[in-house]
Amino acid sequence: MKKIRLGMIGGGKGAFIGVAHRIAAHMDDMYQLVGGVLDVDYKRGLAFAKEIELDTSRVYATVEDFVKKENALPENERIEAVSICTPNFLHYTMAKKLIQGGFHVICEKPMTTDSKQALELEGLVKKHKVIFCLTHNYTGYPMVREMRKLIEQGKIGKIQRVHGQYYQGWINPIIHDPKKRKQIWRLDPKVAGISCCMGDIGVHTFNLLEYITQMEVTSVLADLNTLYVDNPLDVDGTVLLRLGKGVKGVLAATQIATGEENSIQIKVYGSKGGFRWDQENPTYLYFLQEGKSAQVLKPGNPYNTKFSLASTRIVSGHPEAFFEAFGNLYRGAAKAIRGKKIDAGEFPTVHDGLRGITFIESVVKSNKTGNKWVTL
Ligand SMILES: NC(=O)c1ccc[n+]([C@@H]2O[C@H](COP(=O)([O-])OP(=O)(O)OC[C@H]3O[C@@H](n4cnc5c(N)ncnc54)[C@H](O)[C@@H]3O)[C@@H](O)[C@H]2O)c1
Fold first, then answer.
1. Which ligand 1 atom is at minimum distance from the Cα of 63?
2. Taking the CA atoms of the chain, what radius of gyration do you get in angstroms?
3. How does the average pLDDT of the chain come out, rounded?
4. Ligand 1, atom 31: closest residue by C-alpha
5. Quick one: 131 and 155 in the same domain?
6. Host H or E run for residue 42
7. CATH code, domain carrying 275
8. Helix, strand, or coil here: 17?
9. How far apart (Å, rounded) are the C-alpha atoms in residues 361 and 7?
């Protein structure tokens, strides 16, 4: 497959998630990073481009400039796909300009800061016939994919209960200091949008639950916590979920779980069995059955589903994790960009982005209106 010429917006020196995108993109030799708008500060972006040996003539100051100058290049030189790795409030305007410019987009979550923008992006993706991948990267883990497929095949029977948690503790040392809590973009509504914790990590958990069960959450009842009156955005929350067909559950996300790192735990229980998965130990999937000891399923084995097997790169027993899962999304998107056949669920789409922001809006609304049920 001919490598896809990739651009990157954000992800400059010291940025958090940009490096995961670069590693993921280059993992399977399907992309080559060519240029982009690497930093909010153009000079810093140029310096970083030199450091990672990019041609600085392909590094631009703004997305407008990027679209104009790249589109002026011959088609066989032009960047084809662009990763958006900037803070939340920029995703919508940047994605819109790129889609309208004819570029495929790989975008960070949450996709937009409101559902109107998300609906518009969904329409634009369709109109301009581009591929849009939203990096809910946890869907790339082989054992998450195994769970999805086994549930689809009826392994645990009819789903009756779901549980999703994402516990972090990194905001704890920040939130109690009035000066420090003003310096974090994730706590600034102008940059983060209407939610911190639910928009940052609750939405990953929501996406995982819908991905694994292939069911849609139909309504939510949320109780969020900001801890301080001068802090406008949630740092912690619990959400009751209804998924239709009598399926109920809980989603708990927090950034003040002191000492926690990235404790994502997913549990799905059906009439015949259950699954339990923990992101910090991602190669172990626990299969639970009545009256039997728990069975551990691991990736890269002949007993795995085809979808999960295709999501590993090395023989069983060599742990693959965060970067490889990220790489699986990039690989799926690359196949789609090159018009190759893809499996359902190889990468989250613009529709998952719309689902995500609808979830965020709904939990914020439920919390604001006295913890009432809100329909998605
Ligand atoms: N999928 C995941 O697991 C995951 C993890 C962390 C962050 N994220 C998401 O990634 C996004 C970025 O988060 P981060 O933690 O990397 O942020 P960050 O603050 O570490 O990095 C942001 C980068 O964007 C650049 N930037 C800002 N404004 C820009 C502009 N106008 N033009 C070009 N570049 C600009 C900054 O210079 C910086 O390089 C957020 O939307 C966040 O929700 C996703």
1. 32
2. 21
3. 98
4. 40
5. no
6. helix 42-51
7. 3.30.360.10
8. coil
9. 30
Q: Quick check: 108 and 16 in contact, CB under 8 A?
A: no
Domain C-terminal end among 137, 166, 186: 137
Tell me which of 137, 157, 175 is where a domain ends. Answer: 137
Residue 282 · residue 169 · CB < 8 Å: no
Rounded distance, CA 126 to CA 289, Å? 43
Distance 130 CA to ligand 1 centre (A): 23
Q: Are residues 269 and 250 in the same domain?
A: yes
pLDDT of 73 reads: 98
Dihedral class, residue 360 (left if φ above 0, else alpha if ψ from -120 to 50, else beta):
alpha
Query: What CA–CA distance (Å, rounded) separates 89 from 359?
Result: 17
Rounded Cα gap, residues 215 and 123, in angstroms: 23
Q: Are 148 and 275 in contact (CB under 8 A)?
A: no
Token pair belonging to 27: 């993992």
Q: How far is the CA of 87 from the centre of ligand 1 (A)?
A: 4
Q: Is residue 333 part of a domain?
A: no
Tell the residue nearest (CA) to atom 37 of ligand 1.
39
CATH at 8: 3.40.50.720
Pair 153, 94 in one domain: no
Mean pLDDT value of segment 258-287: 98
**Residue in 16, 89, 107 to alter for ligand 1 test, most ligand atoms within 8 A of Cβ:** 16
Atom number in ligand 1 closest to CA 185: 19
Kindly report, residue by residue over 113-156, the tens digit of the pLDDT.
999 999 999 999 999 999 999 999 999 999 999 999 999 999 99
Pairing relation of β-strands 236-242 and 274-278?
A: unpaired
Euclidean distance between CA atoms 95 and 134, whole angstroms: 11
pLDDT band at residue 282, thresholds of 50, 70 and 90? Answer: very high
- In the structure, which protein residues have their CB atom closer than 6 angstroms to any atom of ligand 1? 9-12, 15-18, 37, 39-40, 85-88, 90, 108-109, 135, 137, 200
Show the tokens assigned to 256: 């003040």
166-181 tens-digit pLDDT? 999 999 999 999 999 9
Q: Phi/psi at 265 (nearest 5 deg)?
A: -130, 130
Which residues constitute the domain of residue 88?
Answer: 4-137
In the chain, how many domains are there? 2
- Two structure tokens written together for 362: 């709904």
Long-range contacts of 67-71 (CB under 8 A, 24+ apart): 67/97, 67/98, 67/100, 67/101, 67/103, 70/7, 70/101, 70/103, 71/101, 71/102
Q: Whose CA is nearest to atom 27 of ligand 1?
A: 40
